[in-house]
Amino acid sequence: MNKKLLAFAALALVTAGANAKVKLPHILGDNMIIQQDSEANLWGWDKPGTLVEVSTSWSQQKYSAKTGKDGKWAVKVQTPKASYTPLSITFDDGEKTTLNNILAGEVWVCAGQSNMEMPVKGFGNCPVKGYNKAVLEANRYKGVHYVKIPSVMSSKPLDDANCEWKEINPETVGDASATGYFFAQVVNKALDVPVGLVMANKGGSRVESWLDRDYLKKNTKEDLDSLKMTKNPKFKWDFLYPLLWGNGTFHPILNYSVKGILFYQGCSNVGDPAGQYTQRLADLVAQWRRDFKQGELPFYFVQIAPYHNGDVNGDAGPRLREQQFNAAKIIPNSGIVCTEDLVYPYEVEQIHPCQKQPVGERLALQALSKTYGMKGLFCESMTFKEMKIVGDTVKVHFDNTYGAYNRFEGIKGFEVAGEDKVFHPATAKHFWQEGNDGWNECIVVTSPKVKKPVALRYCFRNFQLGNMANAGGLPLFPFRTDNW
């Protein structure tokens, strides 16, 4: 470009700035759901030194901000309680811009990789169970809206994304995150409030894809040069890149006021060293909470489902599930849902299981119980508590049974091993006898091939389906008592 063209381009920019009207990020738009009963963030850009006035349809209060040298402005607006009454917001810098059909409700982020991204209509050769029913019933869920943030890579954090809010109806429901939408269905009906879903995710992404540059430089050996990433044999596909997806796909939503975060990710971290994923996930949650600046946002996440991972009898998958389970113990204000039972036997090589409605419903149970304080719900899956070995028998107690097991006999998924560390399929059944030693009622596990058991496992293979659950039908988390 010659000097004349450069001068002309510069003049064009100055002229455009002089005539600029208020510019809003795309996430602030018609049909959006604003977080109810909160101080919601509103922000944008304008000519430096411009006074931007903000008014709302629900209040006489006026808000204003003056743009800085960078042209940015921001205000916090007190929002009303949830309702289905359409609202509007007007921005005025001398020329008015009005957003319409806004609802106040509950806003949740849908983050993670492809099993969160997976839409109600499914992917190619990856259907979602219940699609037609979701379309037929879409009009029953008034006030459920969503915005899909495009999956974009960037070496620097982006402040905007090309997106728009959509109302759920038969024509739009197919493009919504299935897990997120089925979560929204339950919350919408249980609380009778509008629900907004902010879908910021990327199929195949690793936990490192969402961590920021400072963290990755300090705590990992990840190469953060985007050009070198393209030549690094470690990254066979671009969805494995660190940093870039967080910068391009998640950073644009960090100013938006939300209620909490839903997360479904982990498949691309299978094989991580013990404890690494646990810590990095906990650190990612801390990073997001810091950047949203809205306190200790609730964080509910999904344990990855059984998948062959190249060897149905291997244990790389359950070792990652174990790290996820441990993460739930150290992340404050969090909860994890188990999906051990949400894979059909014929889905051994299907990394996108079709049963997404129960996943969303279980996330909703966590939120309704822990965030919204709804009483009487069974929201936790059963977990291993303790075992006692008596001769050739392993006696087992569990937490979160809610007073019942889903079955007494025909239990599948348990294995026991002796000192040789070789695990064998085991028979498990309900045991009860009179007594008061604390073990008069339990599950007893035995195997004819193990006379002196020392360790117990449940569904601790890449693809091993169990069938044990609690009174709420929530499955037993895979576990092991050994550290081999």
UniProtKB/TrEMBL annotation:
<dbReference type="InterPro" id="IPR036514">
    <property type="entry name" value="SGNH_hydro_sf"/>
</dbReference>
<dbReference type="InterPro" id="IPR005181">
    <property type="entry name" value="SASA"/>
</dbReference>
<dbReference type="InterPro" id="IPR039329">
    <property type="entry name" value="SIAE"/>
</dbReference>
<keyword id="KW-0378">Hydrolase</keyword>
<feature type="signal peptide">
    <location>
        <begin position="1"/>
        <end position="20"/>
    </location>
</feature>
<feature type="domain" description="Sialate O-acetylesterase">
    <location>
        <begin position="106"/>
        <end position="365"/>
    </location>
</feature>
<keyword id="KW-0732">Signal</keyword>
<protein>
    <submittedName>
        <fullName>Sialate O-acetylesterase</fullName>
    </submittedName>
</protein>
<dbReference type="Pfam" id="PF03629">
    <property type="entry name" value="SASA"/>
</dbReference>
